[in-house]
């Protein structure tokens, strides 16, 4: 079984040097034997091919060929030749090893290109890059800071169960919280890979946890979400536990979210937060309001991407502090979008609906493009709702004109079909592939006979 290495393993690339040469020097200096070339499919599942260190120079200069037709949502069999092009800025030595004499293993995130070396339109990382370029044309850089929640469950004979590893609650302390050592392993591993960890703690439900890392630009953060998930799952496996980012694994318990903090900074002045205006209401700028307006306008379509599973909509229900109401507010956590108290360079909005099963590249892309559409078209979000919506009755919610998020994946996909802004953000290839995969998942789900139906109807009818 893998063991974590207690060494500093993240070696940042110096922009003043040739990035490729520094990667190769780092490989030689740290006895790296294999490098995992990593990318994600349309659903955000990590894929990788391992190459020996001797092949890394070729990978960095010309790329490594692979069969794209075998990857979900990529290309057809007659278009299968594709290239993995490593991004040297993402190189990091992985903090675990399989044996004393095996040498180190490194990982590097790749962009997917076609065989003629043009960027592949359906590569999720390229989808986000296109959105980032659109923002830069408007003079903006988007930073994101996600808060990922996950469950730790017991394993029995190598098979995951839904038995929680502990029965602690929010911010509980050992011995009620049994996962302190596991969270510490995860934090140490992430820090050694270059993460700046801000907090880790037990969450509301039994066996549920959260680890927060510092915000960064959207592309870097999306890369880190992917790394975070596989490091967490590896650390759990090392303790004979199963870590899951499934949004709602236990009926009657809180689900796992990925609340996402968002801010825009001036492209030409990285110390200037576009969302901050000390002279306006709530000390937020018109751009911040319009960004919120764009998100609220497109959120039903965005939800198909930020909440991409049938199971995602088991979390988005009232009663568990779930963000179901399409409103914005200040500190009010019953709203879909809130503006946390920090101001100045810390001014940001928090979108509370995404869950950790999403593809972060696609999620950040559609969030960004929806917000930019709000700025372009000066979409007013209306007045903030400061009342606790969870305590309002149906009539009060109706009278206030408050709408709710889609209640199923099928409904979210219907909204995605009719939203040109979100569809363009994905690009036609990623949009078509996602719709095909998500629609197929819904079709499989809706024809199943579930245990709940048998328990409820079999004896009665």
Outline of the structure:
The protein has 461 residues and is an alpha+beta fold.
Gyration radius from CA atoms, angstroms: 22 Å
Q: CATH-wise, what's the superfamily of the largest domain? A: Glutamine synthetase/guanido kinase, catalytic domain
Mean pLDDT over all positions: 90
- Treating each run of at least 4 consecutive H or I residues as one helix, how many helices? 13
> First CA to last CA: what distance?
51 Å
Describe the fold and architecture:
The protein is of the alpha+beta class. It has 2 domains: 3-120, Glutamine synthetase, N-terminal domain (Ubiquitin-like (UB roll), Roll), CATH 3.10.20; 129-430, Glutamine synthetase/guanido kinase, catalytic domain (Creatine Kinase, Chain A, domain 2), CATH 3.30.590. The chain contains 13 helices and 19 strands. It has helices at 19-29, 56-61, 124-137, 180-192, 218-238, 286-306, 312-315, 360-376, 394-399, 409-417, 420-426, 428-446, 451-457, and strands spanning 3-4, 32-40, 46-52, 64-67, 81-86, 92-93, 96-97, 104-114, 140-156, 159-164, 197-202, 208-213, 216-217, 241-244, 258-266, 269-273, 328-329, 337-338, 349-351. Helix 4 packs across helix 5 (218-238), helix 5 (218-238) runs antiparallel to helix 8 and helix 6 (286-306) runs antiparallel to helix 8 (360-376). Residues 1-14 have low confidence and may be disordered.
């Amino acid at each position: 079984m893998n063991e974590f290495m207690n060494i500093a393993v993240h070696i940042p690339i110096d922009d003043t040097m040739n990035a490729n040469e520094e990667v190769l020097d780092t490989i030689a200096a740290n006895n790296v034997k294999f490098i995992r070339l990593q990318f994600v499919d349309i659903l955000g599942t990590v894929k990788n091919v391992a190459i020996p260190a001797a092949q890394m120079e070729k990978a960095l200069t010309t790329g490594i060929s692979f069969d794209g037709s075998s990857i979900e949502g990529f290309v057809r069999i007659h278009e299968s030749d594709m290239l993995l092009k490593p991004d040297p800025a993402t190189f990091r030595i992985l903090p675990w090893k399989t044996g004393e004499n095996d040498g180190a293993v490194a990982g590097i995130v790749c962009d997917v290109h076609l065989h003629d070396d043009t960027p592949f339109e359906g590569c999720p990382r390229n989808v986000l890059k296109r959105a980032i370029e659109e923002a830069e044309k408007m003079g903006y850089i988007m930073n994101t800071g996600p808060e990922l929640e996950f469950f730790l469950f017991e394993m029995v004979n190598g098979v995951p169960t839904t038995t929680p590893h502990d029965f602690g609650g929010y911010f509980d302390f050992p011995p009620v919280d049994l996962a302190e050592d596991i969270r510490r392993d995860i934090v140490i591993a992430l820090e050694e890979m270059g993460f700046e960890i801000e907090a880790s703690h037990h969450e509301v439900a039994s066996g549920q946890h959260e680890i927060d890392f510092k915000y960064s630009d959207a592309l870097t953060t999306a890369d880190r979400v992917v790394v975070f998930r596989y490091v967490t799952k590896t650390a759990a496996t090392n303790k004979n536990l199963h870590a899951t980012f499934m949004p709602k694994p236990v009926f009657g318990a809180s689900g796992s979210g990925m609340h996402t903090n968002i801010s825009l900074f001036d492209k030409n002045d990285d110390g200037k937060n576009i969302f901050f205006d000390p002279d306006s209401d709530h000390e937020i700028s018109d751009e911040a309001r319009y960004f919120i307006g764009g998100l609220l306008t497109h959120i039903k379509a965005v939800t198909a991407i930020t909440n991409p599973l049938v199971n995602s909509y088991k979390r988005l229900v009232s009663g568990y502090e779930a963000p179901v109401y399409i409103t914005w507010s200040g500190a009010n956590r019953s709203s879909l979008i809130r503006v946390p108290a920090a101001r100045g360079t810390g001014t940001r909005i928090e979108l509370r609906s995404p869950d950790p099963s999403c593809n972060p590249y696609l999620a950040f892309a559609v969030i960004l493009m929806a917000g930019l559409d709000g700025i372009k078209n000066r979409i007013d979000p209306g007045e903030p709702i400061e009342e606790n919506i969870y305590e309002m009755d149906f009539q009060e919610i109706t009278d206030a004109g408050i709408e709710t998020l889609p209640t199923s994946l099928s409904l979210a996909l219907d909204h995605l079909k009719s939203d040109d802004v979100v569809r363009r953000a994905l690009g036609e290839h990623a949009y078509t592939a996602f719709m095909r995969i998500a629609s197929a998942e819904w079709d499989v789900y809706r024809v199943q006979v579930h245990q709940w139906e048998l328990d409820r109807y079999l004896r009665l009818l």
